[in-house]
Every structure is written in C-alpha cells, then in structure tokens.
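Quality-control log, excerpt.
Job 1 of 2 completed; input and output follow.
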Amino acid sequence: MHDSDGIIAVLDELSALGVRLAVDDIGGGISSLSVLSRLPVDVLKISPSASSPKLIRATVALATALGMSVTAQSIASSDQSARLALLGCRHAQGPLYGKPVDADSVPRLLTSLEHLRVAA
C-alpha cells in the first residue's frame, strides 16, 4: 500500500457509513500487520492456500485481538468446514454453501432463505 494514510482515510469514511470491510486472502498474499491493525476492517478472509492449522489458528487469534471475525474462503466439503470450525473459524463461504450470485439475484435469494433465520 503506497498511500496507506489516504487509503485508511477512505476506508474510515466507508466504515462510518456502515459499510463492512474485509481483507481477502489472508495467508495467501502479502499483508503488513502494522497496516492491517490500522484499517477499519470487520473481517479477515482466509485464503484457500492457508491450509496449515497453525496459520489458521494464528489468523483467528489475530482477528480476535483486532476485534474482527474470520471467514474461510472456497469451502468445498463438510470435512473441510468441520476442520476449520475446530480451529476456531466460525464463518465460511464457498461451493459447499452455494454458488456466487449477481447483485440482481440477491433479494430473491434472501427471500428464499428467510425460513433459516434464527430468532435472537
């Protein structure tokens, strides 16, 4: 990130508007922890290439320490999902749960999933 202060200012503005922000491919790319700790980010997304249990636990611990949640990407099997849950990763996305949809399809998808809503 060449202009980290400028980027952080824009992300702060988005966050103030209620936009939830995520950092993609944790464990699969190059991330600066000092910059990461300054970002108004809600979610760290674990890369599919981050298969090491130690790396997954560390990412979950880092996210927790920074007040963020963790989402595992590209989950294709229930075994993979169960292993991640045991390592502390409570959120996941991928073909096991459904295919990506375009923006126009989201309202219809949410309506079809309303029966799954859990009362708080």
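Job 2 of 2 completed; input and output follow.
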Amino acid sequence: MLEFQLVESGALSFADRVAIAIRASVLGAVSTLFPSDDVTRAHLKAQGREPDWKAFAPPAADAESGLDVDFSDVEPAVGMPQGNGVLRLRDLGDAPVSAVWIGPEASLADLERIARVLQGARLPDSVDGVVTLGHRQLRESAARAGLLGALRAAGMRVELPLAMPRPRPGTGVGLACGAPGARGAGWHETGPVACAAAAIAAVVTDPRQPTLSVEDASVAESFVIDDRLLERPPSDAAAVDGARENGSWPKPFAITGPLRGAVLLKLGDHVGVDRILPWGARVRPVASDIERLADHLFAVVDPEFGARARAESQGWIVAGRELGHGRRREEIGLAAVMLGVRGMLARSFDPEFRRLLCQHGLLALRFGGDADAGTIELGDELEIPDLPEGLEQGKPLVVRNLTRGLQVAMHHDLNEAEVAAVRRGGLLATLRRDETAASSARSMSAMGA
C-alpha cells in the first residue's frame, strides 16, 4: 500500500477527493481513504453537520518510503470507449464533437466551471449538450446559484437521470464527464472544462488555453439543506441493534460442517456483473433493502432464480469462464447470501469478483477442466463433505454430485487469511467476532480492575 502526502495541505477539494475515490474503484481499489482535515470539516459544515466532524490523519510517513510525483508534465487525458485505454486529449487532434454529456457524478464545482466556460456562448446546432443531475440537492443548489439558468442559456439540456444518453453514431466524438458507464456506451471520458470547451468549438479543444482559464469554484460548498425527507435514526442504541438483527440485512453463514445443496443456476461463459445484478431504474430504488434487491439477482438470465433459491434455502451456481467481470458491485455478495447461495463453481473467475465472494463468505471454486464442468447440470444435488477441516490453502476440495454418482476436484485459490474468513462466514462476520472478543476482554479487564 502506498501513502500519498500532499505538498500543500488541503490541496484537493472534497469534490476532487470523491472523484478520485470513484475512479479508484473502477481501477480495482477496494476502498479509498483521505484524512479528515479542514477540507472535510468545511464540507460537513456546508451540509449542516459540523458537529459530526472528527479530526483524523495518518501517521507521518517514513521519508525513505515516500513517493515524489511531479504533476508538471501531466496533460489532459481521455478515456476511450469500450475500455480501450487512455490517451492524451491532444492525440484526438481536432476531431469533430457531436455530443457532450455532463453526467450525474459531476459535482457542484464542476457545474460552476462548465457554466463559466459557456458564459456568453451558445452551442452550435451540430452539438447536442446534456446535463444529467445526480440528486435533488445538486439540482436545488445549482438552481439557487444560477448555474442551471446559465447552462440552459448556452443550449444545454438539463435532465433527471432517467436513462443514459448516447452519442450520435458516425457524426463525431461524444465527450462525457462525471458519467458512470459512459465509456461502455460509446462516450470518450474527459474533464469538465474540456467538455465545455469542446461543446462551444464543436471540436476537441485543449482546456489549458488561457481563454478557458477559470477561477476556483466559489459555490462548491454552498448547498441547499433540506432534510425533511430523511428519517432520523433512533437515539436508543438498543433499538438500532434490534433493527440490524430484525431487518433485511443477510446473516452470514459460517462453515461448521459439510455443505449440501442443489444447483440453482447454470450459466455459460463471460457472464458479467451487469447480467448478475443489472443496475438500472428497477434496482436502484431498492438498493438499501437487500431482501428486495435479492429478487433482481440473475433476473436477466433467469427470472425464476430468486424464487427457486428461496425455495431450496441453500444451493450453488455453476458457470463457465470469466464469471463476474466488470465493475465491482458489493451488493451481489449480500444478495447471494440473502438467497442462501453457498458458493459458485466456475471454469474461471474475474479476480475482483472472486475476492468479493470470499469477503462475503461464499466459496469460489474453480473446475480443473471443461470435462469436469460438463458433469454438473441444473438441479443436481452437490455436497462438499470435507468441511470445514478440508478447506486449507493450496488444497483442492472434493465436490460430490449425489444426483449422478460422480465427484470432481475443485480448486479455490484462497490464501490463509481468506480461508479463515470464509470459514467464519466472511469479512463482516470476522469483524463482528473480533469486536465481540475485544468487548469481552474490555469487560473482563474492567471487572478485574
């Protein structure tokens, strides 16, 4: 793990930190941590939550282990569509631009920068400009600051995030910023000022031109505070614990003995995250309710999967190659546990998806060959008898097909720490156990004192 210390305290705004955290997850980072400093405090104050702020900073880094990064030669970049790498923006030359999309992850500061670049200008008829506002507070704050009026005056359409716009094929480049999934839909992803400059010129434009220079955003920490639609958490700690126990949060399954269950679903090759749990208008509203969210797991592949899994109460999923490729989606593990899925057997896994299954206490077992994968069919009763003792680092597990009277050796690729986590039911169960042990130790210490 690398620790980066900024040369100037507070050099990154809160919005910039959020943008980095979002992009880091796309690149495979499990989490991103920034210090809780004056920048964090100012943001919480703007949200009416300054009393919630607590200072937190990492320990001083060893000078010999530091990494000096020189940003003086950094150029504006562009992410190519369909995940085809990243180029310098100038590598696109003066390619014509037919569409510009400011997506729902754009911050209030981004909208202000774009509005300043577009001030007094008008998009040409050949350019389709769309602004998708991510949430109600952003819309109301941008409206109060006059940003929405300025964007509309320049010819941008301001919309709610009902559907992803698409660039017009064959008419020019489509540039997007703050837009999740944009590259997969044919957009070129770049920064907000580059998008605004291209929208005016109708061609790819270097945002570092002196005429495009904009001052730091002045309304970025000026939010409309309206929390009337939020339900306040109970102040009684016991009530909170009771809600966690009785709510829709799935309880992890520790492996305490042999596992047995039916094959609930059999999939082919290259089943990605978007087919496992499609993240659209139907799924987003129930994202916080795992019980209802579980109904959408694999629904694109088999609409009856959820009902079948609940009826069986415990079972397996069998798949081909590259199961789970795509952007990490933590809800998949929670939904699978909720439905009683104990593991997935595949020809190969996306590495990040395999880690996700492990962290939720699910076995990710890999076939040794295509012939082994062909011996298991939908509905077959499978058993792993040698558990939990047989689950060891570097040791394959024997899976018995009780329906067909066969058995295959499966590989799990778990290291020692992952083996321990899966045995206990996943990372959350491990953390809960450790916290319970620590609490008991504190109580015993207090009694001894």
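Post-run check on job 2. Confidence is low (pLDDT under 50) at residues 1-9.
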